[in-house]
């Protein structure tokens, strides 16, 4: 759906960047609804602005967009709805609000785009550069990647691969496998009940709060960040700790049978009857093993 | 070693050089494709299409369209190239993506059209008539298994996943996967007899 | 035992039984030709299943894939220009960098004895076998690839959003510090497996950030 693009009258007006939400007087708006049957797929490409996807109980996908200078295209092929913003150099935010049936697979590509996907409970694929990402109720195989934006995920029912370079990553409530990466951002994983969990940062801190599944594999590593595990419930695991100049602090008794101390900075010990495998590494940060409840105690 | 068998079939001796050369050009194509080069992605498609299509075909049998699902897999791979970090070999990563996609597709497909019950033994149309002399192809026999048993058999015996991994992927216990596997094997044995 | 073996046969075949259970099964097999026959059938079946050929699809599926990924290209700067590759000039530089990258761990992973396509060890533990010590050659290969990618990034710098460039550069600084510290620790303890794998991971992270930066869409 193309729209007439107004010509610039004055350089000052054209050069001004529109940050955040468009003003109440967004010049253009589209509102289109497409019927879908069964498993639907939504794909949105929006270089700057916002994309908000929420669930509703109709077997339709409704796309509304507000923008000043851009071209917005909505196409539908069977159950696949594709939404694209085309832009000229300059200010060109598009703000999307999209309603989809429960279970819709959602894909969003953006650059300086904030993205929220709430309550859809489908497979989510999000890629953005400087936008913030918030998503709740993710199923299947989710992938969320950001460069400088923060990422907050809740109610992750399937597997998730989430990464940010400098943003903070928070995952609260995940049942499936979790793979989380950041370089300088902090990683916070809470209420995790999956059995394959890995987190990696370079300078960010990493904290994990949750259960340790009996046959699970957990790998948390950082260069200079602190690595903190708060374990809820009983734990049966073989724990391997590696550090160069960091420290280990543990609420659990660390009993080393003879011969398991590999070097001055590497330890291996068992909690309970073994079974799970926990690998904790921080080159210079502090590694902490704490007993605790699955959630943190701080106020939300 | 299954890998060596495949290389031999392709007419290539499994020398370290062959494997390294392929790894190099594949890595180059992965980097190029991640930057948007569709030509490079097509080369990756051609390299992995048979493997992915075979996996999809065997897991899904006549429940769905293996061609369309194979396309879904590669579209997903394209979408997620930026999250491939080189921790595992590209083929391994792609393969895992394919397995997850098929499992999730099966989950939502059974939700929206309950045609088969996992408990019933469903005899789907056999590919050819069974005469005492014919040897039933293993893939045809796979198609005659109930969905749940077939899935575990493919993941364990064909693809090589461990029970813990399969249980995690399907959201069941290893007790269930082991029981399903044995059931699948016994049913397959029955279909392949003669 | 008057009953025949059932699920124990699969467990036995897959080597999942403890010593006591295994002995019981073997004792039964010794006296039961029917169960022996069943076991042989299952062994044959599993062997066949593990060596199945991969057959390509009957028709070429590429066109359908190309159409769908073409739909999803990120926004063109000039939408009226026909769809093209995103970054024409940086691609050869990427290719050179990627080709230059031959890591010991990849070669080792390819040669490892396991089924092609079987999943890597879980929870991000990376390559199956770690080199005992990161040889000079490996480090030099990384340096080569890193420098190629850095040139590609420099060439693109003006095209990218300044805020993002700053984030990338800060991240690279953080990673460079980690690499330097890991290298100096390794100099004093060259065969330490943890330090070797840690340095390799830091180098991999640097490559990731650089690759990501080079593949970033053009700023508007």
Topology at a glance:
The complex is a heterotrimer of chains A (300), B (194) and C (220).
Chain A: H1 11-15, E1 28-35, E2 41-56, E3 60-67, E4 71-77, E5 80-86, E6 94-101, E7 105-122, E8 124-127, E9 133-138, E10 141-146, E11 151-156, E12 159-164, E13 169-174, E14 178-182, E15 187-192, E16 196-200, E17 206-210, E18 217-222, E19 227-231, E20 237-243, E21 247-250, E22 266-271, E23 276-282, E24 286-291
Parallel strand pairs in A: 2-5, 2-6, 2-7, 7-8, 7-9, 8-10, 9-11, 10-12, 11-13, 12-14, 13-15, 14-16, 15-17, 16-18, 17-19, 18-23, 19-24, 20-23, 21-24
Antiparallel strand pairs in A: 1-3, 3-6, 4-5, 20-22
Chain B: H1 2-9, H2 16-34, H3 38-60, H4 66-80, H5 90-112, H6 138-143, H7 147-158, H8 163-170, H9 174-192
Chain C: H1 7-13, H2 19-31, H3 33-50, H4 62-71, H5 90-100, H6 104-111, H7 136-156, H8 162-188, H9 193-214
Helix pairs in contact in C: 2-3, 5-7, 7-9, 8-9
Please summarize what this structure is:
Chain B is an all-alpha fold and 194 residues long.
Please describe what this structure looks like.
- Chain A has 300 residues and is mainly β.
- Chain A has one helix and 24 strands.
- Chain B has two domains: 1-115, Rna Polymerase Sigma Factor, Chain: A (Orthogonal Bundle); 119-194, Arc Repressor Mutant, subunit A (Orthogonal Bundle).
- Chain B starts with a helix and ends with a helix.
- Chain C folds into two domains: 7-50, no CATH class; 87-119 and 126-214.
- Chains in contact: A-B, A-C, B-C.
CATH top level of the largest domain in chain B?
A: Mainly Alpha
Output the number of helix runs of chain A: 1
> What is the number of domains of chain B?
2
Tally of discrete structural domains of chain A? 2
Order of helices and strands of chain A: HEEEEEEEEEEEEEEEEEEEEEEEE
The CATH architecture of the largest domain in chain B: Orthogonal Bundle
Residues in β-strands, percent of chain B: under 5%
User: How much strand of chain A?
Assistant: over 45%
Share in helix of chain B: 55-70%
Low-confidence stretches of chain A: 1-22, 296-300
Structural class of chain A: mainly beta
| Element string of chain B (H = helix, E = strand) | HHHHHHHHH
Mean pLDDT of chain B: 80
Record field, number of beta strands of chain B: 0
| Quaternary assembly | heterotrimer
Rg calc of chain B: 18 Å
Q: Largest chain-chain contact?
A: B-C, 72 and 68 residues
Alpha-carbon distance between the termini of chain A?
A: 42 Å
Tertiary shape of chain B: elongated
